[in-house]
């Protein structure tokens, strides 16, 4: 019961509290405490010091352990920087958005925890839809036209997408006709046990519908538009939250059905679908980076690219699968630092247009250097984590039965790196002086602190490679039937 | 009985294809809500229990009372014009729907040979899903898009009754609440869109591009 209270009930109670508390500072303190408690508890479970036991529709396994830790970690840092973010001056309309900020964040934590820990497809669906509902009003924080359009598109596309995923779930029940699972509940574990008895035609249909439906939320091309618009127009902490944790909550749904498909004849088909989805996403990012003009949109497309790499790794299997699991963890940390620093740039320059941003290093030295380091990290420059996970994925692809995929991927990633680098260095160094921006000394804020800690974490985890994490990821790949 | 209700459901879809009034969409949603409620109450008539009434009651309140009223209020508040602004002709739209439905019914019939499914509810549900998507694609007004989304959701519900013996009630109610909150948020967004972007049509959403 303790685990259920801390992971589910406390965020919910904090959400209700935030509704009644007028003071933003108090809301912040309560939310931060709830987030910290969530993080500590999740860590204890991850390390294995606490053996959790959840009621009916929920359960723990290696996959949910890792994903919950990522969610909890991303959430904590986002809440930590949120207060300083909310203090920034905004137009009078946007003042309204502050009132419900922490309420929605807490509800987001509750819904995401529920989606990640659910052991039942129905429960997962309800929770995943609830995460959309909690994040949509947060996208509209700035109360301007772009944010409104982004929120509408996100809400609409993702709701329709999730409805498709529901059709996929119904197909899954059809595939169980005539097996011992018939008229049983939709528990993952039961399906995984009896996977080989499922009807392959319905199973294929189910996989397609669930993957395409959830793609709207994961941001896999060609369903990525709503997600990119939302990420690029929401406030930076929310964008970090979406890129760092919301996308993987949707990804866990795809992983669950992939786990069911694994021992069946549908496996090869599912692999091809995942590989196509992954490559398409990298291709979309590759094309976009040639005509980039908005830096937040660029980061949103970088998310599309990295989720593409992850999905590609999962599709290839074996070592690439292990690399993809590491990549999920590193990418979430990396997206936090990128969006935090981009948010600082946005605050001073008041624009997302790249052409209007220059000399960031001179005007905002802290932010500028951290932004540069974050860019190195996301471009897989050692010793940052992404380097090691990408290496593992590439090695996996090279020794798979489709080594030619590596050449295509590397080619596209190279140009993404060049174009992104060109843009970011123009922003950091570019000679054009902007007179409207005063050249005051940048003070050291909590956002800088968070960014530095996260960058250090990115290096430390990669270099030390803690046994517990490695063991957990190996357990996940064992659950998926991949042996190294 | 299930078949009769499903066929009525299909007829309501044809009506959607030919009507050009915004209000008619709301009435169709209400009608479909009633059909779905009757459909899930029906099996309980023989072994009645109060507990079994919770789900139909929630369904009725949300799909027949709350959502239609809410949409009607938006239509009145925003003073949305009565016609729906189609992007293709009504007749072409009807042909498209008839063609898709024929295809769906034939396919379902073939599928029912190999899998144990109730052909008529299965095909009707799937038709509603497809019609919902067509409505979203071929109509300009955002409020009609919301209606299209709800038709799609109704289709999934019907489809669900044809394939799943039973989902736990808690989850069914969760699904209904989710749908309600989605519509509620879309309504708020529509209000803002009409005041900030001065339009209720999809063409007014053109700011975000690559």
Quick summary of this structure?
The complex is a heterodimer of chains A (484) and B (210). With 484 residues, chain A is mostly helical.
Task: Pick out its properties.
heterodimer; A: 484 residues; mainly alpha; 20 helices; 75% helix; globular; B: 210 residues; 7 helices; 0% strand
Give the helix/strand class of chain A: mainly alpha
Instruction: Evaluate the radius of gyration of chain B.
Output: 18 Å
Termini distance of chain B? Answer: 51 Å
Number of helices of chain B: 7
* Oligomer status: heterodimer
Helix proportion of chain B:
over 70%
Query: How many β-strand runs of chain A?
Result: 0
Parts with pLDDT < 50 across at least 5 consecutive residues of chain B? none
Q: How would you sum up the major sheet of chain B?
A: none
Shape of chain B: globular
Describe this structure in words.
The complex is a heterodimer of chains A (484) and B (210). Chain A is 75% helix and 0% strand. By secondary structure, chain A is mostly helical. The longest helix of chain A is centred in the N-terminal third of the chain and has 31 residues, at 145-175. Chain A is globular. Chain B is mostly helical and 210 residues long. Helix content of chain B is 75%, strand content 0%. In chain B, helix 1 (2-18) packs antiparallel against helix 2 (22-41) and helix 1 runs parallel beside helix 5. In chain B, 41% of the residues are buried. The model of chain B has no long low-confidence stretch (mean pLDDT 88). The A-B interface holds A 57, 120, 122-123, 125-126, 129-130, 132-133, 136-137, 140, 144-146, 148-153, 155-156, 159-160, 163, 166-167, 170-171, 173-174, 177-178, 182-183, 185-186, 199, 201-202, 229, 232-233, 288, 291, 297 and B 114-117, 129, 133, 136, 142, 145, 149, 152-153, 156, 159-160, 163-168, 171, 174-175, 178, 181-182, 185-186, 189, 192-193, 196-197, 205, 207-208, 210.
